[in-house]
TrEMBL record:
Compartments, as annotated in UniProt: Cell envelope
Name of the protein in question: ABC transporter sugar-binding protein
Domain of life from the UniProt record: Bacteria
SUPFAM superfamilies the UniProt entry points to: Periplasmic binding protein-like I (SSF53822)
Primary location group: other
InterPro entries according to UniProt: Bact_Solute-Bind_Prot2 (IPR050555), ChvE-like (IPR049784), Peripla_BP_I (IPR028082), SBP_2_dom (IPR025997)
Keywords linked to the UniProt accession: Signal
Amino acid sequence: MISRKFAAIAAGLTLTLGLAACGGEGAGSGDDNNGGAANGEPSDLTVGVAMPTQTSERWIADGAAVEDSLKELGYNVDLQFANDQIPTQQQQIDQMVTQGVDALIIASIDGTALSTQLDAAGAAGIPVIAYDRLINGNENVDFYVTFDNENVGVQQATSLLVGLGILNADGSEGDAEGPFNVELFAGSPDDNNATFFFNGAMKTLEPYIEDGTLVVKSGQTDFGTVATQRWSQEEAQKRMENLLTSTYQGSDKVDGVLSPFDGISRGIISALEGAGYSGDDMPIITGQDAEIASVKLINDGVQFSTIFKDTRKLADQAVSAAQTYLEGGTPEPNDTDSYNNGVKNVPSFLLESDIVYKDNITSLLVDSGYYTQEQVDSGQA
């Protein structure tokens, strides 16, 4: 699936980059010659790609997309997955720097744990592109490619409100008045994006919590309490089971759950099913990443929504930025203010995401070639 999915994107990337350079759009549209660390033919250059894990299909797809696109342009690629182990990722990047890669694309496990590696890359003149997760506390982060992460949180919260009937899908006011019992989950506290998702969601939900339309019956609303270490499905299931045992007794029911990631959503669903929720009784559950197992759950009416972040577009921007550096230029950001890593505002290129509901799975995911209908039906890539 992965190779088929991204083959067309990789094959067309050279044209895409050329159009971006001519049109002034995309991460690779800069024409400065004050960045970059390499000269020579692509076949003489190597890009190190550090991905966090292979336990999520999303990161497998990202790694494949970046690798395929770079190879299509003629670059050598050193792709490594760290299995969610910080020391492993540190060692992998150390090795890439020592072996003399010409650029680095890094999706970090812990955005604060790579300063030694980035210092070494900076000293060697190796440009560093942070991939979807900002790397914090170091000046040697040259560029950041990601989605508009706060807006992802807004979309998750919006889809929760739509599922409850408080809003209509077009954003207009719905007929439902509540009160509705909801519970909140957030992502991993060591992932910079998790706070952006949660802040965007809470900005959207707080007015409804304040006026009583939504009731967080457990009282757990702060990020530190609702965060899920390493985005773990198992940890999410345990926390949901504890919430059901401690808070929802007798006729009390959960009406909705804000979930920031499809893996967490599946853990929540397992806990709810274990407590007897099913069919029309299943709460409205959000998600993120459009993982195929969750897309099937949406298609089957179990999970309500997810956020589609097209990794093909993200890979395009990362590869575009790397190519620009390797050709001696500086990538063109479309945001220079939103992402401060504690040392500097990191020039960024932000992409847009989409809310997936049952009725737009075909238009967003199948018609675009991201999945086939057979994969949606089976829940397997």
